[in-house]
Amino acid sequence: MSFLELDRVAKQFGTQTVVDDFSLTVGKGEFVSFLGPSGCGKTTTLQMIAGFLDPSRGAIRLEGRDLTVVQPAKRGLGIVFQSYALFPHMTAAENVAFGLEMRRVPRSECRERVRATLAMVGLAGYEERYPRRMSGGQQQRVALARALVIRPSVLLLDEPLSNLDAKLREEMQIELRQIQRNLGTTTILVTHDQNEAMSLSDRIVVMSQGRIEQIGTPQETYERPASAFVSQFLGKTNDFAATIDRTATPGRLIAGSWSAPAPAGLAGPVTISIRPERIGFGDAGLAAKIVTRIFQGNHWLFQCESECGSMIVIRQNDGQKQPAEGEAVRLAWRPEDMSLRRTGDAA
Amino acid sequence: MSAAPTTDGRDARTAWLLTAPALMLFVGVLVIPLAMTVMLSFHDWGQYKGIEPVFILKNWHEVATDPYFAEMFWRTARIALLTTLITAVLGAPEAYILNRMSGRWKSFFLLVILGPLLISVVARTLGWALLFGGNNGLVNKLLMSLGLIGSPLSFMFTETGVVIALAHVMMPFMVLSVWAALQRVDPQIENAALSLGAGPLTIIRRIVLPQIMPGVLSGAIIVFSLSASAFATPAIIGGRRLKVAATLAYDEFLNTLNWPLGAAVAVLLLVALVLIVVGSNALIERRYAEVFR
Predict the structure, then answer these.
(1) Domain that holds residue B278
(2) Would you call B292 and A88 a contact, using CB atoms and an 8 Å cutoff?
(3) Interchain contact B103–A (C-beta under 8 A)
(4) Residue ranges matching CATH 2.40.50.140 in chain A
(5) Quick one: which of A39, A62, A220, B108 is 20 to 30 A from B221 by CA?
(6) Nearest CB to A87 within list B189, B202, B292
(7) pTM to 2 decimals?
(8) What topology is assigned to A238-342 in CATH?
(9) ipTM reported for the complex surpasses 0.85
(10) First to last CA, chain B
(11) What is the pLDDT of residues A189-237, one digit of tens each?
(12) CB proximity B204 to A under 8 Å
């Protein structure tokens, strides 16, 4: 069921293509994140939905109606900006009430909705505060309340949490998700933080250089990255060369002294991609030496020098004895945990 | 504990010692001449006897009662106020438009606006005289030869002329002041208002203007005080016929040679300006304290 639809949207500035061939359908009530490094076109795409920029090509539809012909002021979307963009000369309540005033909502209803929305974001009692007298987290909540009070058809969040410190950001993530679930507002989040995208979204759109690399649930994009870019960008990953030997029957996939039955279809040189937490230390497998060992509380991070180059391994701190620095180990993993690409293929 | 007072004492001495040169300069070139001017305003003066160092209220009485002086001061206030109003009404939008321009044009037009500050006020004011000065003024000549006007536009020696020329001279101060205020405005804030359903006029009136108002007001204070005490422009455009406080004081000092009366005029101008500036500054600070400090 498509609620918001972007159909082959592209944006060019001069000769430079910033967003190209962007197609996405968002269901009602869905939480979708645009994830990518800075300059990947995610904010540009958000601004085209908001109407601050016009797409060079393609269509944006909301409930089947063309959105690009609608003035930004008439689109009825709620937006939270990275800088919050609160009105500094208005109190929290006046900031939140602004959108309702523009809609000529009767005064008594307006007051009630402002009160309820501020209470929802945990700012009851802060009505008369000016933004300058509030902390970053509180300003963030005012910005969210201001965007939500107009009951937007779509909520657009432009890196809303990036100015908060790590602990506050985590709290806000949980709160944001709860508010969004309760209201059922269709939400699009722009972020460069993979943890934020994964913990908040129903689906993630991974972008790179103006193009969509992959659309999928957080689990899909993490477990089955569609490209080397996605696997590198989402979490840590080990990429290394292996070969498939078809001379023997059945064929073998060989990486150094590690080998497994070859999967069907592929032959010759391939690249293995495997997450560090899926590699274990065993009696047989890829020969390696621990170079450094870093303790990170709930897990250990090992930097290893193996037959197939440098690799990282993450082990849960489950109380088991862990190998020491300089120790020779064998790295092993289950074939279903890795993904294989023909060497030279970008995707 | 016992060492603290001596250290404090030494620190205070060092502070005084270090600021002494600047303090001496300040006292020597500002405080002493100012005090002498104030004292001068209480001295007597006669055509043949010159300045008599006595303490009388003659000059102050004259300034306070003679309608001639009242007219001068009202004119000064009127001209300064109108100039301030014109620079605010034209300068604030100018700064806003400038701020919205893209990179290269912005720096070019900023230069155009600030450039005149590099040219002497006298030269800039004389430009107006060249354009509008009686029958020989370029603009007057052109308009008359086109048959648009029968007689030259009166510009020289009129209050209108002084106000226009002063507004031209003072414009950069207003634009700079508003520009500085605009730098502090979040560039996304207009988009935020737009997304909430505000039209362009509402955005200017409800969102942009309140935020740059402190800039407009501090620009107004600068322009008002500079205009009220301006000398060159009123002297050239207004001449001897249309005097303002500054040219009046000048004439008393250098033409009539009645220094005490000139001193009284100058001191009154200074006191009035200080009161107006300090008063309005306090008002502005109180009005915007909650929001901007």
Answers:
(1) 67-292
(2) yes
(3) no
(4) 238-342
(5) B108
(6) B189
(7) 0.82
(8) OB fold (Dihydrolipoamide Acetyltransferase, E2P) (2.40.50)
(9) no
(10) 37
(11) 999 999 899 999 999 999 999 999 999 999 999 988 888 889 888 888 8
(12) no
